[in-house]
Amino acid sequence: MPVKTTAEQHQPGNPIFSKERRRLAHARFATVLKILNEPRRWISVWFLSYALLGAISSGLLPILLPLMIVGLTHHLSWVAYVMGGFNLGLLSSPLWGFLADSKQWHRPVFFTGFLMLIIALALMPFLPGLLPWSLLALLAGAGTSAVATVASLFIVEFDPKDHWESRLGWLQTFNGAGQVVGLLVASAFVANFKMGLICSALVLIPAIWLGAKGLPAAAKRFDWSAEIGNQMRREIDWRLLANFGRPELLGGGVMRFSHHLSLRGGKRFKEVLSTRFGRFLFSWFAVAFGVAAFFAYFPVAMQKAYSVAPALTSSVYAVTAAVALILYSVGGQLSGKFGAGRVYRWSLIGRLLGFAVLLAVFFTPIPKTFVALLGFALIIAVWPLQSISGTTLTARLTPFSQGAAMGLFNASGAVATVLGTFLGGPLVQFIGYPALSAMAIVGIILGWLSGHNLQAENVPLATEASANATAGSTI
């Protein structure tokens, strides 16, 4: 019997490769369960401060800020510009990473980020106006970015290498759980958003105390002069981390894993334009661009266009996000069984159906409140599948190191989110709320079409190993 070549072994539908893919998926799932069953080993006190950041930046602020803008000014387009300022502030991550590494200002940057966010939230209710709100939102986004950037660096620079994935996984789980709590609390403040923003600022004060108590004061393992970014990009198992729950961030995910991943990976952009990885990046960009305006406006849009009370919107979002946190492990299993490419496109179909329901409400005589809530819940629920399959595709399709690829992946989503948010302002102003769903549908369709036949599940496993092995020389 002739022996199959390596190329033949990795043809679509080959049972040998499918079994290996499923085996790796099951192994990652078992590793995630083991890590989650040992919380005391991996959790630090300061993780609670990161949970509070998630509660405010990903929970309370996205609900209360749009409601306050429309409630006080009745200018719909202002929501896009103010929330766009917040997203733009998130792109300051490379600056904070540079200060932390070059000046050894890890703790000062962490605490300064919280102070910036506290100041912005406390002043917003008392300084109405497009320019003050936009500047304060920019400050809040920059503060959020500072905390998130340095949080990952505290683990990567101060903990042993074999602890990185476990502690980063728990860190982002705390952030995701914080978002759920923040959304539930936001429902209590929708009638008094000014008080909600002031209380949000006060809640962050204990976060500074928790950070002062639990953050490492000095490096335990690495010399300060060492280039941690190369090690981080080369040695972290990104697909394992993708199995841990996290919120769908306003900034398109640029906060997730520090500054090293967004700027340096960008230098490789020209190399991927004509590859399948480049096609996937365009798909991810199109989807993020399309849905950005909706996520900036959703509490206002659900109230004004679908007659859903903001408290109910916040509660449904919280419950759905909580359930979705569990779906990350399911997404990993599905990617292993059916391939990340298929799961990614399935997730886009789910979101497409959700936005199609929201758009259909405007043109058909159906009960808009109940149906809109179903569409909204579906949009939130499929995020874990999109997130984990997108991360897996990044790792499998990249022609160079996974770390540099994650930089392009996060940066594409972040830039698309900023651009899409700003564009949403004039669209809503001149067309109305249907423009939000229509814009999302167009972006998702473009993403689905460009994501066709990526066949990432058939990429030889050796490609991943070679990408990691050459990380130091290719970045």
UniProtKB/TrEMBL annotation:
GO MF annotation, one: transmembrane transporter activity
Transmembrane found in the keyword field: yes
Alphabetized InterPro entries for the sequence: MFS, MFS_trans_sf, Sugar_transport-like
Keyword Transmembrane helix: yes
Alphabetic keyword roster: Membrane, Transmembrane, Transmembrane helix
Membrane-spanning segments: 43-72, 78-97, 109-127, 133-156, 168-189, 195-212, 277-298, 310-331, 343-364, 370-393, 405-424, 430-449
Database matches in PANTHER family: INTEGRAL MEMBRANE TRANSPORT PROTEIN-RELATED, MAJOR FACILITATOR SUPERFAMILY (MFS) PROFILE DOMAIN-CONTAINING PROTEIN
The protein's name: MFS transporter
Phylogenetic placement of the source organism: Bacteria, Pseudomonadati, Pseudomonadota, Acidithiobacillia, Acidithiobacillales
